Amino acid sequence: MSDSRFEWFWRGSATLVVSGPGARQCVARLQRQGIVVRDVRFVADGVMLRVSVAGLRSLISSRRALNVKFRIVERHGAPFLGRRLWRRKAFAVGAFAFVAILYALSSIVWRIDIQGAEGEDQEAELRQAAVEAGLEVGQWKSRLAPPAELAERIVARAQNYVWVGVELKGSVAVVRGIPKIPGVPEANRQPCNIVATRPGVILDVQASRGRVLVKPNQLVQPGQVLISGRLTDGGPNVPASGHVYAEVWYTSDVSIPLRISQQGLTGAFVSRDYLQIGTARLRVWGFQEAPPATYERDRDTDWRVGSWRLPVQWVHATLYEVKPAVLQVDAAAARAEALVMAASDVRSLAGGDMVILGQSVLQERLERGTLYATILTRVQQDIGAPAPIPETEAMPKSAGAAQS
Amino acid sequence: MPGWTSSFKRRAGELLHLPPDAVEPVARVTVVGDELIIEGAKALMEVAPDRISCDLGDRVVEIEGESFVIKLVTEREIHAVGRVRHLSFGGGPR
Question: What is the pTM (predicted TM-score) of this model?
Answer without folding.
Answer: 0.40
